[in-house]
Amino acid sequence: MIQAPSTQRHSGFSLIELVISIVIISIALSGTILSSNMANLFSSDPSASLQAVNIAQGYMDEILNKTFPTTFPCPAPPVGGRSAYANVCDYQGLVNVGAQDQSGTTIPGLSAYTITVNIDGTTASMGTLTAGTQVVRVDVTVTRNLMPTLKLSGYRTNY
Predict the structure, then answer these.
(1) Rounded to whole angstroms, how far apart are CA atoms 109 and 65?
(2) Can you give 66-107 as a three-state secondary structure string?
(3) Cα–Cα distance for residue pair 117/96, rounded to 1 Å
């Protein structure tokens, strides 16, 4: 006697379907966790980032308001700190641990920032202006723990 096929349906997952589901869920979960950890690692407090921009802009404004340097490479800065600086070149190699005003006084609440200044009078170029005699580039770098480095560049021309 021939039996008729069973009309009863079995529901459930096969072993292969179960393993594939677990793999897909684990990949999605690990990707989500990894991206949230990376975002926490590389994102910083927005107010700290804005403060770094303000610090860099303040230093840049101070430097670009000085006269154009007369000699390259930059000689040693004058004695007396930033209050004695007369031209852009005097700022070459300046490193302030903690933001400072022009007289050298550390600004309260900004001691976690490190400011570095580099004056480039050899490779700076701007159109047809000659590096060193007609244009210099000023790089102000601001760093803080667990915050991406901020570098602000500006040009000073001999006008």
Answers:
(1) 26
(2) CECCCCCCCCCCCCCCHHHCCEHHHHCCCEEECCECCCCCEC
(3) 9
Q: What is the pTM of this model?
A: 0.70
Sheet holding 135-144, edge to edge: 95-97, 114-120, 135-144, 147-157
Q: How far is CA 31 from CA 5, 60, 101, in A?
A: 46, 41, 45
Residues 119/74, Cβ–Cβ less than 8 Å: yes
- In this structure, the dihedral spanned by the alpha carbons of residues 57, 63, 68 and 71, taken in order and rounded to 10 degrees, is -120
Instruction: Give the pLDDT band (50/70/90) at residue 29.
Output: confident
Q: Which uninterrupted H or E stretch holds 31?
A: helix 15-42
Other CB atoms within 10 A of residue 10 CB: 5
